[in-house]
Amino acid sequence: MISCIIRSSTLYRGFATHAGLHATLPAVLHLKTGQSFSGRSFGAPKSIFGETVFSTSITSYTESMTDPSYRGQILVFTTPLIGNYGVPRNAAPFDSKDVGVVLESQDIQCSAVVVADVAEKFSHHSAVESLASWCHRSGVPGITGVDTRAITRLLRDQGTTLGRIAVGADALASRPITDQYWDPTTENLVEQVSTRVPYELNAKGDVKIAVLDFGAKANILRSLVRRNAAVTVLPWNFDFDSVRDQYDGLFLSNGPGDPTHCIGVAMKLRRTLREWNKPVFGICMGHQIIGMAAGLEAYRMTFGNRGHNQPVLALASSGSIKAGRVYVTSQNHQYALKLSDPFPQGWEPFFVNCNDSSVEGIKSTMESGKKIWGVQFHPESAGGPLDTIEMFTDFVNECRAMKQRGVTSMPVDVSDVVGIQTPSGEAFVASA
C-alpha cells in the first residue's frame, strides 16, 4: 500500500505544468550599501531600481505581489521555493460576494521579486500560468539562484535598503553609483495606486460605507461586501466631509510609502473625527492617518514588518477583541505610530507588537463617545491567519446599529456623488 502511494505521488508530480522559463539571462541584485548577489533572471528581461524589503510569508506569493503596499519595492521572499502552485486567472464577479479580482489588485504592484529557487513546474487546479510567465507578461523582473537568507540577514541588520536588479548586459556592467539609486518613498505612491474615480460595490447592501482608497487590497473590500455592506470606494484625497452624511461608516485602507505624503488627508480627517459620530475604521496606512489626525507621530522602522506571523497583544477589549489575548496577524508596513505618553485625549493604545513593542493599534476611549479603531496589521489577511477577521463584522455591525438608532444619515444615490462609476474588468482599485 505504501509503495502504491509513493508511486501515485510521483506520477501526480509528473503531471505538473512546466513553467516555460524564458531565455535565461544573468542577473544581479545590487544593494546601495555595497553588497551584490548574482543569479539568473526570470520574468521580464529588464533592469529596475527599488527599495529592497523581505517578507517571511510562506505562502500567498501572488497576493503579496499584487498588494499595492509593495509599490516601488524589490520583494525578497524568505521562503526558499516560490512559484510551485502557479498563478490563477485574476478575475471574479462584481457582486455581493466578490469585487472583480481573485488577487489583491489587477496587476503586480512590486517592482521586482527575489527568490532562492523559482519553481520550473507548477501544479494547482486554478493555475493558468507560471510565476515566470506572469512576471514576463507584466514587465516585472525577477532573480533566482541567490542566497535569500543572507540578503534577509543584511536587511535586518542594516535596515531596508535601496537596490537594483540588473539583468543581461547590465548584470555584467559596473554596479550603480550611489546617486543613481531611486528612493520610491520620496514620491507619493498612494496617488499612483489609488482609484482615479469613485465607484460602488454591492449597491443593494443594507449599510453604506465609504472607503478612502490609499491602495486598498481587494480582500478588504471583499470582507466588507460579504458582510452585506454597500461600499463606495473614493480616491485617497476625496473631500469626504462634503458627502459624509450619506454614509453609515468610513473606512481608511492600507497603502504604500511614507504616510506624511497624506498629512493633508489627516488634517481633513481631524475635522471629520471631531464633528462626525459614526464609526471609523483604518488599516495599515489608514491606521497611521487616523493616528496623525489624533496627534500622534509616524516614524520609519528599521526594516518594517512583512509576513503572516506577527503576534500582537490586545491592550483593550472591543467587540470580538479581548484584552490580554495575543493574536497572530498578517502585516506589510515600513512605518508605524510612535507611542506617546501621555496619549492624546480621547484615545488609547489598542494593540502592541509582541516582538518589537511597536504600536499595532489605537482606538477611541469609551468616554469620548466615538467609535474609531485603527490597526497596523491586516485583519482580512489574504494570505495569513484569520485571528482578527471578525473586526470587520464588529465594524459593519456597529455601523448598522448606529443606522438603526437613527444617527443622522441620508440615503445615498450613486448619482449624488460626482464621478462615481460602476467598475468594470478594465478598471479596478489599485491599478497602476
From TrEMBL:
<dbReference type="InterPro" id="IPR036480">
    <property type="entry name" value="CarbP_synth_ssu_N_sf"/>
</dbReference>
<comment type="subunit">
    <text>Heterodimer composed of 2 chains; the small (or glutamine) chain promotes the hydrolysis of glutamine to ammonia, which is used by the large (or ammonia) chain to synthesize carbamoyl phosphate.</text>
</comment>
<dbReference type="InterPro" id="IPR002474">
    <property type="entry name" value="CarbamoylP_synth_ssu_N"/>
</dbReference>
<dbReference type="GO" id="GO:0005737">
    <property type="term" value="C:cytoplasm"/>
</dbReference>
<keyword id="KW-0067">ATP-binding</keyword>
<keyword id="KW-0315">Glutamine amidotransferase</keyword>
<dbReference type="Pfam" id="PF00988">
    <property type="entry name" value="CPSase_sm_chain"/>
</dbReference>
<comment type="pathway">
    <text>Amino-acid biosynthesis; L-arginine biosynthesis; carbamoyl phosphate from bicarbonate: step 1/1.</text>
</comment>
<dbReference type="InterPro" id="IPR035686">
    <property type="entry name" value="CPSase_GATase1"/>
</dbReference>
<dbReference type="GO" id="GO:0006526">
    <property type="term" value="P:L-arginine biosynthetic process"/>
</dbReference>
<dbReference type="GO" id="GO:0005524">
    <property type="term" value="F:ATP binding"/>
</dbReference>
<dbReference type="GO" id="GO:0006541">
    <property type="term" value="P:glutamine metabolic process"/>
</dbReference>
<comment type="similarity">
    <text>Belongs to the CarA family.</text>
</comment>
<dbReference type="GO" id="GO:0004088">
    <property type="term" value="F:carbamoyl-phosphate synthase (glutamine-hydrolyzing) activity"/>
</dbReference>
<keyword id="KW-0547">Nucleotide-binding</keyword>
<keyword id="KW-0028">Amino-acid biosynthesis</keyword>
<dbReference type="InterPro" id="IPR006274">
    <property type="entry name" value="CarbamoylP_synth_ssu"/>
</dbReference>
<feature type="domain" description="Carbamoyl-phosphate synthase small subunit N-terminal">
    <location>
        <begin position="25"/>
        <end position="166"/>
    </location>
</feature>
<keyword id="KW-0055">Arginine biosynthesis</keyword>
<dbReference type="InterPro" id="IPR017926">
    <property type="entry name" value="GATASE"/>
</dbReference>
<dbReference type="InterPro" id="IPR050472">
    <property type="entry name" value="Anth_synth/Amidotransfase"/>
</dbReference>
<protein>
    <recommendedName>
        <fullName>Carbamoyl phosphate synthase arginine-specific small chain</fullName>
        <ecNumber>6.3.5.5</ecNumber>
    </recommendedName>
</protein>
<keyword id="KW-0436">Ligase</keyword>
<dbReference type="Pfam" id="PF00117">
    <property type="entry name" value="GATase"/>
</dbReference>
<dbReference type="InterPro" id="IPR029062">
    <property type="entry name" value="Class_I_gatase-like"/>
</dbReference>
<dbReference type="GO" id="GO:0006207">
    <property type="term" value="P:'de novo' pyrimidine nucleobase biosynthetic process"/>
</dbReference>
